[in-house]
Records
---
Amino acid sequence: MSTRSPRLSKSRFVAGLQCQKRLWLDVHRRDLAEAPGPATQRIFDSGHEVGELAHKEFSGGVLIDPPPYEIERALRETDEAIAAGAEVLFEAAFMYDNIFIRVDVLRRNDNGTWDLIEVKSTTKASDTHVADVAVQKYVLQGLGYIVRTAAVMHLNRECRYPDLSNLFVIEPVDDRVSEMWQELQPRVGEFNRLLLQDAAPEIPIGKHCTDPYSCPFIEHCWADVKHPSIFTIPRISKKRIDSLIGQGVTGIVDVPDTFKLSENQRRYVDLFKDGQRQIMWPAISDAFSELDYPLFFLDFETQADPIPRHYGLRPHDQFPFQYSLHILYQDGTLEHTEYLHPDTTDPRRPLMESLIRDLGESGSIVAYNATFEQRVIRDLARIFPEHRRRLNRFLPRFWDLLDIFRNCYFDPSFGGSNSIKKVLPVLVPELSYAALEVQSGDVAQLAWKEMISTADRSKRLELERSLKEYCKLDTLAMVELYRVLAGLLAE
Ligand code: SF4
């Protein structure tokens, strides 16, 4: 345990609202936390980028720039800047009631009051953001500052590139802060006492482990959870999860037969208890009869930037930068084609032109979760009206392979998931994602960003190869799953 006197902060306070054990572990056993994954890393990176851009909206702001660990210097420089009459401060540092905060933007009003503004890279102010603002207001008011407005400055979904003049919205959240004001002081006291304890509080796992955020201590706290776990039961409520955990049940196979579940949930639980596959061959046969050769197995990789950089995009809009396409002919011939955008220009037109050439006029387009691929095509049709009719003709040709594993083919070996990465090793064990450097869509996004920006030619070639391998495997996996199912159907 650390010998330094532990302090609260904005993020620790919010962690404590999710789970007090998380707060304690965050302070005393950081070593037990999982390293941030690529998705979390992208959120951090975009947060920095958005924060810097937000500062440009306030002219003449003074940046308090000591790093997070130089607390005393940050406090001193904040005092000096305020005493010198700064109108706007960025990252101003304050400490009160053992809570240390850095305020994203603090703006002085003519009457001596202050506006407190928290910058977020999302497109709305969530309850967690409001809690974050509330604790900052608590500190400032405790120090004698009068906060006129407490607000969240977030991205505006109405903004479209190239006009970024309305990129941000400053949304006052005073009413929402007031709603939680009463419980703030007792919570701060409770959390400060908790930090002085020698051991983590005994808090059972539950839905709060993933809501509102996935907790970094899941691996530690869930070590004894049986797999597949009760958390994979479709649409199970927090109340039922808590009730099962209260009975010491974490694995699906241990759910009592008398435990109240919906019909769907009970069917799911029974699948694991029986340990047998359930396959509805007539339904699969019907679905396969809808397919027209040649079969086009299609997968897109997309990027979503908080700050849009290409025509017509809004904050966080997805756009495609890569696709892989396997074409299976009725005689069994298989062809592969692909597109990977090579640079920082807008990928959509060349990708779309390549796609129109490759998809031809007829034949089913097979995707795994086809609504995603269809959405990408609809977005392309909106941006390129001259190709709208051609692109829209692709939509009714889609056929969703995921529907087979969602509705007709259940196997306990899938571990309660119907993701292609879980289904593939069971039905096609010779194909695997394990050896690939890029193994998920999140990593593919990071890899593509690096590929188009690096000046290192060999690095660029390596990333290009990894991205092509990954996307190609996604469509080859569909081909092989289709072949396995078709073979079994034929038997
Ligand atoms: S995994 Fe769950 S119980 Fe453990 S610290 Fe996180 S939220 Fe709390």
Note: Residues 19, 21-22, 25, 203, 205, 208-209, 215, 217-218, 221 surround iron/sulfur cluster (CB under 6 Å).
---
Amino acid sequence: MTNPSEGTTAAPLEVHSRNCPSCNAPPEAGRLLSYGSSAWPMRQCVCGFTYLDKAPVYAELSSNLAWEKSFKQESERRLREHRVSQKLSKSTRWRVRLFKRLNMPELIASSCSSGDVLDIGCATGGHLMKLPDGLRPFGIEISQALGEAAAAALAQRGGTAYIGPALDTMKKLETNRFSAIAMRSYLEHEAHPGPVLDEAFRILAPGGIVFVKVPNYNSVNRYIRGRAWCGFRLPDHLNYFTPATLTQMATSKGFAIEKPFMWCLPTSDNMWVRMVKKPDTAAAA
Ligand SMILES: [Zn+2]
């Protein structure tokens, strides 16, 4: 079996070690999983959380591993190594069309009609530009090239894109500011998902909502396809959430989670969840 990480990076990367992002237990407290590699060990912690215990430093993410490059590399690798199963997977994509697909701008528009919206990992800002007029679009993007394109686009709507790591950028934003935050295919890449959710809670207005879309490690496809599952991207994907571990992390930060999850079909590779910063009952009284 070919190592899933081969071909994803050309040069050695500067890395840092990680404890469990959910309970902070050291890596040794978890068991090694065969889905990882010698360069990128994957572990399941005693608390149930699955993660890579090494992560590239943020500087690598801003250039060498920027999404637009790594996505292309990963697609090429998949095509090379899994030509048959890839074709099979593509040919059965009809299954996801059996149900209405979720769309981040529509979800946000259905939850709030005014205020500032923040998209973390906004790429060129395409989703934000689809928001209705009453919502001002802001994005955070770690890739310099994508962030500059987003900033230019969002300026037309009175917003902007902040270029840099999400956590550092969020720390500079005002408390209780945003009506909604989108984390679409982002949290699985984040080396510090817990502190990011802490900051999201702080900068959200009371009643504000975070929409999260991440790969579902409990997806049936992961069991069927094993190491060829599309949710495995080493070292891009650092965190492998299940409904249970995502709920655990979010509620530990103060969020209320809508159950059942909005979109968590066993046949879907991804899941969506709506996290709410419930207004403080004392403040609301
Ligand atoms: Zn843990």
Note: Confidence is low (pLDDT under 50) at residues 1-10, 94-98, 281-285.
